[in-house]
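Entry: SGNH hydrolase-type esterase domain-containing protein
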Amino acid sequence: MVIEYRDGTPFTGDNHTPTELANAIRTKKYGKDVREPIAQLADKLSNAVLGQNIGSVVATPTKAFTNLSELQKAYPNGADGVMVTVDNGHKYFWQNNDWVDGGNYQTPQGNADATVSALHNQMLDVLDQQNKIWQRKLYVNVNTGAWLNDKNMMVTQSNWCWTPYYIPVKKNSDYIFVAYDSGNANSKVVGISSVYINLYSSDKSFIKQIYTNNSNPGIFNTESAEYIRFSMSMNTFSDEQYPSLFKGNTLPKEIENDIYGLFDTAYKQLGNSLADFKLTPSVSLPKIENLPVQIYDDALIEYAVNTDIIKVFLYDNFGNLIVRNNSGSGWKIPVNSGNRALDFNAILGSAPESYWRYAPKLYRKQSRIFINEIPTNAGKGQNIKVLIIGDSLTNYNIYPNRTGELANSDENTTIEFIGTRGDNTKHEGRGGWSAKIYTTKTQYNSYDNPFLNNGKFDFSNYMNTNNFSNVDIVIINLGTNDIALNRPDIDNNFSGDFKAYDEIISSIKAYDANIKIALGSTITPARLNNANIDVKTRRQRWNRLMARYCLDNNYTYIPYWLVVDPINDFKYEDVQIDDYNTTTIKKVADNTHPADSGYKKMGDLTYATIKKLAEDIKQGK
């Protein structure tokens, strides 16, 4: 290349030698043709220096990233300093408009040890914000068809899976692998035995393999390890049983099915997905043989903001006996349908050309509802006294009266209701009351408390004061106000509320240990246009805990939330959109209290529960 003195030709190209660049700087006539060769010469000088030393740079990293992709996303146009990626432990520098791999970040001076420790602690800080630090999602955060053996080698093994990435842990700390023992409503959280855990030091060198045993299922200690990987069978626990890793050595009360807290192969936390959801746990639903019952899609679906994009299917092996109801919002189980195990499936997505597109195992959920058909002659010959303790749902009288109407026409069982309130059917319902109020307040919302005596819930005093000779069944149908008055930031597990239930039931059992206890769930709030998702989610959490509480204490659980239609069993009014738009729209008049149709369905379920318990009493159960 020949460059004339005071050369006015444009400077073009980027593949020049240093000499050519120097000549251009000296001789080009215009400034714009001088600045570019200066910049190119500076780049060549920088690259030459880094090229000689890039493998031995020991500077403290400017910032750490989970992987190269995250680094490129954060700094697409480069940045000064040394960047480190966690997935491979390499350092990166910005060169030639690209992030260049400088090899392993290590140095004889020990900077690598400090960096590795800092990265490990950084990830631990994230994990310390939650008790559950891992939950298995097949095809998402585990590799299948193999396991890690005690030599830290991957060995082919069908129906096994293993974590290909390293999970940071605290030294000499206890952790526990847990899962539900089944997919049913009566499932319990149990520890997982035979999980093989490989322990690693701070530089991810293999230490040894340990495993969880049957004596303390699921529990292990990290000893000197700072990272772990592990292998488990896919046969023992399915994804629907939520196999998870928790901190500590205590079984959690429940396992939430969410994506938060899981780590993928790049250590990146997967955030909560609004698209994720689950179906309600399996429950038993009593049904009188000569009455139908309905189960509603929205009541089956938990945690989804928009249930319109979730399709619920019933695996029907009953010859189309159980079909969609007329509104298309649920399923009708007709009279004389017998005992049934209904397998519901739900899929997230759309159905173009009748083809479902969804993520296997992640967005397909299952639930089983057991229909326990109660014969009309159940409890034949029994004289049963019933007390219902409740809130405004009971105080409205409609579902107690429906229950009493069915009881009065019962030719097999004599059913009497006791209480100080109610018109046609007696009860103890008080608007706005919760279990805590029943155990602490002498008066609330203008209602007196007939159970409180010397500051305590005293069932014996209640029975004697009101000249009630005995009672066989006590139904406690609260929950709505327990939830409304609860502070989730203080007591998200409702432990204080369940202590109030303990106090009430202990007092009842002290009066007569043979009294049958039945506890009602809340109902789903009005859900027109996917409204009240926050209320629905809180109530569903309560209902799960209540179902578990009943199971643990051998009480009967009444799943009211299944049988009340959250769309069509509420009251509506026609209202004008606003002062300037006279168009009339439908608006829910009451989000909490159902229409008469919803109350009557609650009455049917209450009656079926009483008949079941009457038969249990007859059989000495």
